[in-house]
Amino acid sequence: MIRPSSERYLTNPDDVAANRSGTLTDGQRRKASQVNWGAGAVALLVGALIGGGLVVPFFIMFQEQNEPLALIIPALILLVVGVPVGLVILQNIVRLALTRQDLAAGEVQTADGQVAWRRRRYAAEWPGRPFWTNNSVSGLAPGPYRFYYLPRSGYVLSAEKLGGLTLAAGMMGGGETPGLTEVLGRVIGFGAGDLEANRDGRLGGGQAARMVAAAAGLGVLALVILGFCAFAAFNMTTENGGLSAIPLLFIGAIGLFGPLLVGWAALKIVLDLLGGRVQVIEGQVQRTYSSSGKSTTYYYQVGGKKFTVSLRAYHALVSGPTYRVYYTPRAERLVALEAKE
């Protein structure tokens, strides 16, 4: 089942206009309450699980154990796991309490800052931001913004782009903020030189190197499948003194079709490398994901095509802008994309 991503849009003109005048909209009140109550409930649930799984057993051991040295390893596990989790739980509870106070007071504060990419997410940053703030934002391209937020909890209500404003380098402790295309290059794996080559319809050097590694990995996988099937057949033959038809057909199918499928994928990458060309499609890119059991696969979808991406790349894409998406013609492997200015 494929589901589109959901985002809390922070640039709604009605919300920005209300916040600019110092008031909150009803929708913002509901959303802030839902977000923080949800975080608080999760924190309490995790706390209960940690308490039941670590704290209670430790105190039972403490009461029953006569040898203090035997408690060292359980105590270390409790400290390493329990203390960080406990701090996160406390942070969420404090944030929930402060948000309730903010919503009761109905005050809105303003600060100029930036949206920056921080490892796996976009974050809103401004001077004096409370350290306990959940400053994760989505739907905002990196750059300078004016933020409207709740003063005690630091909850971001809305934001408006500050066109033409250049923040002083190092203002937020991270130097110059990279643009959207540069962030996408970091998480997908392409550089400025690769992008220049793609604009001319060519495969970049860095992209070619990553494709060589991908093809080699697929080749190793094909050999592993063959080796596993040979090993399984040998063991079954040795143990049973002969191999019956059904296991033989099953192992033979895996040993034949597995390497063929993997090899075909590797061959398409090799042909793309030999051709050295890329294709481009332009349009708005939608983030989607597909869940099957405990496994989740993330995609970029544009113009009838769907490209598998990592979780970091999924979070790095900002919906709204028009993108140029570059991909290889045979394997249809995503190699780069850039946001049109």
Q: Separation of termini?
A: 34 Å
Strand order of the largest sheet: 4-3-2-5-6
Strand share of the residues?
15-25%
Estimated structural class: alpha+beta
What portion of residues is helical?
Answer: 40-55%
User: Which descriptor suits the 3D outline?
Assistant: flat
How many strand segments? Answer: 12
How is the quaternary structure best described?
single chain
Structurally, the number of domains stands at 3
Q: What Rg do the Cα atoms give?
A: 26 Å
- Poorly predicted regions are 1-6, 165-176
What is the number of helical segments per DSSP (H or I, 4+ residues)? 8
Question: Biggest β-sheet, characterized?
Answer: 5 strands, antiparallel
Rounded mean pLDDT is 82
Order of helices and strands: EHHHEEEEEHHHHEEEEHEE
Give an overview of the whole structure.
By secondary structure, the protein is of the alpha+beta class. The chain has three domains: 2-177, no CATH class; 178-203 and 277-341, OB fold (Dihydrolipoamide Acetyltransferase, E2P) (Beta Barrel), CATH 2.40.50; 209-270. It has eight helices and twelve strands. It has helices at residues 13-20, 26-64, 72-105, 180-188, 192-199, 205-240, 245-275, 311-316, and strands at residues 2-4, 109-118, 121-125, 136-137, 143-149, 156-161, 279-284, 286-292, 295-302, 305-309, 322-327, 334-339. The strands form three sheets. It has a five-stranded antiparallel beta sheet. Helix 2 (26-64) runs antiparallel to helix 3 and helix 6 runs antiparallel to helix 7. It is flat and about 70 Å long. Mean pLDDT is 82; it is low at 1-6 and 165-176.
